[in-house]
Specification:
- This protein is 46% helix and 20% strand.
- Helix 1 (3-25) runs antiparallel to helix 3 (43-63) and helix 3 (43-63) runs antiparallel to helix 4.
- The chain is an alpha+beta fold and 178 residues long.
- The protein is rod-shaped.
- Strand 2 and strand 3 form a beta hairpin.
- It has four helices and five strands.
- The chain has a five-stranded mixed barrel.
């Protein structure tokens, strides 16, 4: 086994080991590497390119009679092409498809919630707001300084100092119970 075989095998095995590591143990390394701003350094691109480079180089070395530098050039081309293909197949489409479950307090303005703990005229109660990402509880104060009993639907009018200022929600489409 020659030096080039060993180089190609190391590249291929490194890529495969990294892939298995992230499959079984999470993608903490991927998150660390994804903090870079350049899309060229995305873990998926680096590892797919490295693995393709190693595998194609090893196969070209073993099964063709090309010179080592020709094999190296072909392996670089194959690795580069696979990395570019991975970029346009997975990375680029996913940039626009990612959704965040995070939110800011200001995004709660206008949301409808329900009082969990009665909101007194002066003081704080608790409301629950249902969002796309789930349900979230927050401290709430009455905007109009009136008591809002538990179970009342409310709308968030303002958010100040991490407190939701709410008012009872009256939906004209709902029929009042008798």
């Amino acid at each position: 086994m020659g030096v080039w075989d060993i180089i190609y095998l190391v590249c291929m095995i490194t890529g495969l080991v990294y892939t298995l590591f992230t499959l079984f143990f999470g993608d903490s390394v991927s998150e660390w590497m994804a903090q870079t701003e350049l899309p060229v350094f995305q873990p998926l691109l680096l590892i797919s390119g490295l693995t393709a480079f190693g595998a194609s180089g090893y196969l070209f070395t073993r099964f063709t009679s090309f010179s080592p530098w020709t094999v190296f050039a072909f392996a670089v081309i194959v690795g580069f092409v696979l990395a570019v293909t991975a970029y346009f197949t997975w990375i680029k489409p996913m940039e626009n498809a990612e959704n965040s479950i995070g939110y800011t307090m200001q995004q709660l303005s206008g949301m409808v919630g329900e009082v969990l703990t009665t909101v007194p005229a002066e003081g704080l109660g608790e409301v629950i707001v249902t969002m796309v990402s789930g349900r979230t509880n927050h401290m709430a104060a009455s905007l109009e300084r009136e008591v809002i009993p538990e179970g009342t639907k409310v709308v968030v009018v303002d958010v100040r100092d991490h407190v939701l200022y709410v008012t009872p929600f009256h939906n004209s489409g709902e029929k009042e119970s008798m």
